[in-house]
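Milestone 3.1: sequence recovery, worked example.
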């Protein structure tokens, strides 16, 4: 069985910076830099311009990851796209990305499978588990995995929505997972879910059990009430569950690998709230200098947080060959996951 190795990483965030003060001044939200920074660690986030979606940002990250891996899009055997903010209800962002990468035209067209992953903040790790299995089974040599989100279009940027809208930002991260004979790579992945809490953090937009799924007015125009349109989150319940499940996911991974937390050189935690990550790190005795953050600059980019962190660690030289890396995430579903890699 070949090993599954991350051979390239890439990241992209849109240029427009929106600070906490901008939420007050530009959007008129009754909040403050002090509140947001103290409760979450966020200073600013990026918002994409109108017209830009997850596949476009994903393409930018993917091209950087392919370049780092020394590959062309035509070398790919599969595309996985983790997102909760696809362009459309269907089809998913994966096929849009395939077309953007030029895989659908000309003599070198490659109609590789393109699959969307719907696991929110755990989407990247669900994707990593899938990519690893595809490579280790021999079905694929090179899998492109993108986590990309366009939150800014679907945030209630008013005081009513401030608890959720002050947390999220746009961006994309990508990795190429390749088959290798080298004794390194993704050593294991562990995923979990608890569907009892599906509605504790959700954005419904419609309910397919209704007839029709979106109520219409007399002119036949769909009407979406605010409760359905915007994300709903019971923040404190999510916070508590995140700390518990992330600790558990780390311990499961370390036990399965026969290692302790001290053996890990670099920790990449999902970036939902700096305080969640500090609780987890304190509980597990993880020192600050082994834990990376980007929530201060990007907010919560959901499926993009871990690949963006990983790309920053690679490009800054913080991550060196031979290091042991642990990743852990928790989010809507509830879903969670962890992975251990030898870089
Ligand atoms: O990645 C997916 C998973 N998501 C998460 O992991 C998020 C987990 N939850 C959290 O991070 C925290 O629960 C939040 C940061 C979302 C909220 O922090 P909290 O300490 O749980 O605050 P709260 O929701 O209990 O709200 C406390 C107060 C409320 O006012 P009252 O009712 O006490 O008067 C809120 O209306 O803070 C108010 N508030 C705000 N005030 C200023 C909520 N959001 C804001 C805001 N600015 N942006």
């Amino acid at each position: 069985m070949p090993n599954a190795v991350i051979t390239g990483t890439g990241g992209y965030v849109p240029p427009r910076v929106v600070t906490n003060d901008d939420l007050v001044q530009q959007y008129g939200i009754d909040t403050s830099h002090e509140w947001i920074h103290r409760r979450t660690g966020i200073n600013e986030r990026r918002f994409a311009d109108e017209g830009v979606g997850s596949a476009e940002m994903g393409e930018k990250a993917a091209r950087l990851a392919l370049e780092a891996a020394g590959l062309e899009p035509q070398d790919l055997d599969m595309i996985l796209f983790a997102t909760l903010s696809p362009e459309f209800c269907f089809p998913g962002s994966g096929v849009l990305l395939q077309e953007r990468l030029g895989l659908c035209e000309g003599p070198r067209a490659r109609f590789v499978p393109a699959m969307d992953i719907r696991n929110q903040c755990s989407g990247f790790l669900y994707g990593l588990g899938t990519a690893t299995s595809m490579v280790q089974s021999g079905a694929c040599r090179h899998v492109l995995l993108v986590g990309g989100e366009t939150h800014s279009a679907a945030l209630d940027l008013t005081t009513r929505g401030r608890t959720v809208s002050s947390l999220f930002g746009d961006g994309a991260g990508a990795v190429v997972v390749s088959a290798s004979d080298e004794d390194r790579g993704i050593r294991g992945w562990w995923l979990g879910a608890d569907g009892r809490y599906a509605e504790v953090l959700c954005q419904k937009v419609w309910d397919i059990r209704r007839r029709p799924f979106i109520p219409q007015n007399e002119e036949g125009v769909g009407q979406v009430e605010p409760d359905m349109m915007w994300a709903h989150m019971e923040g404190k319940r999510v916070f508590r569950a995140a700390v518990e499940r992330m600790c558990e996911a780390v311990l499961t991974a370390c036990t399965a690998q026969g290692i302790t937390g001290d053996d890990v050189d670099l920790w990449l935690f999902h970036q939902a709230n700096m305080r969640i990550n500090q609780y987890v790190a304190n509980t597990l005795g993880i020192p600050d200098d082994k834990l990376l953050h980007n929530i201060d600059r990007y907010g919560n980019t959901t499926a993009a947080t871990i690949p963006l962190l990983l790309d920053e660690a690679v490009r800054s030289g913080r991550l060196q060959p031979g290091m042991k890396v642990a990743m852990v995430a928790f989010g809507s579903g509830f879903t969670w996951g962890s992975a251990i890699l030898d870089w």
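The mean pLDDT is 98. The pocket of oxa(dethia)-CoA is lined by residues 31, 35-36, 39-40, 121, 162-163, 166, 201, 235-236, 238-239, 242, 272-273, 276, 300, 331 (CB under 6 Å).
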